[in-house]
Amino acid sequence: MDEGSELSLTIAQIVQRLKGSHLHSQIERQAKECLHQPDIKLESLKEDVRNFLKTSGWERKLQNAVYRELHIQLPPSHPTAPPEHLKEPLAYMRKAQATWEKRVQKSLNSMSTELGVPLARMRPAVEQRELTNKWNEMGTDEPDLSRFRPVYAPKDFLEVLISLRNPNHDSSEDISIRSHWGLIQVPLNVRDIPQLRRAFSELSLNTGQLGIDDNSHIHPDLFENDYVQIGKKVVMEQDSAAAQQYSKQGCPTGLRADLWALILNATNQPQDVMHYEQLKAGVIQHDLLVDNLIYKDVKLTASNDDFYFVFEDFLYQVLLCFSRDTAVLEHFNYNSATPPKSYIKGKVGDEECAVVYPPNGVIPFHGFSMYVAPLCFLYNKPSKLYSVFREMYIRYFFRLHSISSSPSGIVSLCLQFERLLQTHLPQLFYHLRQIEAQPLRIAFKWMVRAFSGYLSTDQLLLLWDRILGYDSLEVVAVLAAAVFAFRSENLMEVTSLASAEAVLADLSTLKVMPLIQIFLFATAI
Amino acid sequence: MSKHKTSAYKGSCNYGRSEEREGRSCVRYKCGLFNTIQDVLRQRPNWVEVKDDGEWDFNWCDVGWLRENFDHTFMEEHVRINHFRNHYELTRKNLMVKNLKRYQKTLERDIGRMESSKCDFFPCTFALPSEYHLFVEEFNRSPGSIWIMKPVAKSQGKGIFLFKKLKDIMDWRKNGRGTEEQKDGAQVESYVVQCYIEKPYLINGRKFDLRVYVLVTSYLPLKAWLYRDGFARFSSTRFSLSSIDDKYMHLTNVSVQKTAPDYDPEKGCKWQMQQLRRYLTAKHGREMVETLFKEMDNIFVRSLLSVQKIIINDKHCFELYGYDILLDQNLKPWLIEVNASPSHTASSQEDYEMKYRLLQDTLNVVDMEGRLTGKEKRVGGYDLMWNDGPVYKEDVNLQTFGSSRFTANTHLGCVNDREKQLRQLLRPSLFQKKM
């Protein structure tokens, strides 16, 4: 397919998606209403209306919506490719993902049977009223969660990734010093430092960054003040693409909330608020088994965190609604995962009696709530917090717990991390391998959560600025490698996995941007 | 346990930087408290504890000892003690309010309403029983508002309760001021009644207050330092006006929280000041937060100015105050109280380390070792906030004089890179001319 027809196909797809959307009807209404204005002339109607839409900011809103569609668009493909190929082109990955999903779902169903708790039940009126009153303080509830176990933990998922093999790749001839020392044994194409330097050029030593050049010892006139001024302009212009480009060098604390909302096009329109209220009503009406998993996860992770414990209630409000949001199902078009189905009692196997469970197709695992926790720092209104989180999930976070060949997928990130380490810190990698402390076993839990809960919040937000700015999770793999590089001296001295874990147990004092910058731009290649 | 150590002071060197302050080669200290301060004193190089009646150069005492012994203790020139004789003028709730009101009236009379309105940072307060009638007048003027009753000299949240109706305190007066006093058999003490701040700033439905540390090394002239670290103490339950009797929800003292039934010591109900400042900046933007912190500086300085002429100034004395500040939903800070003996017991490892650093830097400022010139604007985590006048970040000299862009030299909630600063400050150098 040549570029021209690819482009027109893309345009057609986007038009299709935006047609009939709320934005479409709003713009139409604006166009109709502007006809009353005196400066709109009949002779130059088209021109004048276009100009009006431009000056009133509606064109910008449309631009932002189109930009957003480009982010979640399916990659270009052959016209006869079946839909599974669009989700994940490699068959063996699809198979592995399907097997994993079956396991997870089985675990969920057996928990339901063992504990005698239905997957879903309607709440009696009394309970509904109680929950409505307690909506803003669900954290005060202390339900008995001891019987519930998380469906899986990141380390279970790691074992699955380690066992991935490409059946077409004969790796027997590779047993040599040039072979891969790490745990991930699939031949994916991951970028190395020279390519990363080109891709992440704004992080170079010569370019000003937040997280480095806003240090208290550096006079703010040298970088920070001007940068903040530019940021204010970007927010005023309400331009998604500009905000994304700006974010590559970091977002100032006072502007971050607006900038991220712009990048994600989470505008919190009345219809978004209404959608959230509907989800809330759904939570009140029905109780889902996964709700208990969410409660347990929040209590085990965020509530025990010195910083995030304050946001406990927000987390429930967001995650419980998230479970019921069928709009999330859309992202399965480009996610290698498939939403798990459940069957109405007694009708197992009958496709007509199958429902997606949970309604959003995402089964929470241990640590899931940490995807939301840092966002509580930025947004006050639950509906806005929800919109931002949902968009971040369907653009980035889903890739961290599904098996796919995407460069931002967890498999590629793990492989990239290991390759970076092996290529640039071979002595360290060899040593750790010898003492049976495979680096990925330590770094995996950081990457699955995009470092949430491991870094101090301000540093984490600087990292997530770059994820949004570069529309890629690769920076997470780079940071993981950079952390090992930073602590390599101490790691060379350890003699067991436990001591290696201890050296890397506390990342809360790390400054991420200098680490990333040095690793990418100051490593000798 | 923290491994922080001040840079080693070579005992025999005595720079004799100024005529009045000779450095000590060995400091004999007395310490009446058993918590973080003990560790800090013990680990300071060349500081030796004296027991019982030995002579001491430095005394970190509790207010009880001070009350009993200060007046009959002769202190040589170099000796330092950690309280002012009549500190209670600032730290007892009724006296603090009395002094603030008087100061405010003086300002209004001498300068004008504009200036005195800068003292509008304490909630309407009356001392009981002496101002009971004034209180009733004010109470009737604002029906439906909630008031809080606090015993004047108690700490850690003891004896405090809220009420809405006059009837509630009439009952209380009749019953001999509640059962707690009856248990003690103590004398009925004075109380203050204060307008309760009904719309506090909440973070995710939780109320919190701020603890800020201010060190005063002299009242005449007034010299005060502000520490960069501090913390926000959260109530462990959600805030709601409907349950006035829930003592645990309205009071945020850690001591009270510790007795609440759902208190989880592992949970940690504190945020470091830096975390709070960042959170507020993310939510409200830089300008609003800078205004808020400027207003807090104003509270510290004016509260000290209000007692400046009353506190018996004594060159032997210094005092570390713990200020309790509450924010309302408009991000206006309110002064709740000032503590002369802020708790140095730590509630967690992080907390211990912060208090350790605080106390270490306090000793650095007091400077028994004579290492400072007296011209420093920053010592470790302390920034000089007031030195007989406002202190600015920028140097005021002939070139900058007349410029309006002066910023205050305070950094509450900002980065505290004290170790680096201390290393540079206390670098022993025979070539440094510091006279």
UniProtKB/TrEMBL annotation, chain A:
This is TBC1 domain family member 19. Pfam families: RabGAP-TBC. PROSITE patterns: TBC_RABGAP. Residues 250-471 form the Rab-GAP TBC domain. SMART domains: TBC. InterPro entries: Rab-GAP-TBC_dom (IPR000195), Rab-GAP_TBC_sf (IPR035969), TBC1D19 (IPR042507). It comes from Parambassis ranga. It comes from the Eukaryota.
From TrEMBL, chain B:
GO terms for cellular component: ciliary basal body. Keywords: ATP-binding, Ligase, Nucleotide-binding. One of its GO terms (biological process) is microtubule cytoskeleton organization. PROSITE patterns: TTL. It holds the Pfam family TTL. InterPro entries: TTL/TTLL_fam (IPR004344). One of its GO terms (molecular function) is tubulin-glutamic acid ligase activity. The keyword Ligase applies. Belongs to the tubulin--tyrosine ligase family. This is Tubulin--tyrosine ligase-like protein 9. The lineage of its organism: Eukaryota, Metazoa, Chordata, Craniata, Vertebrata. The gene is ttll9.
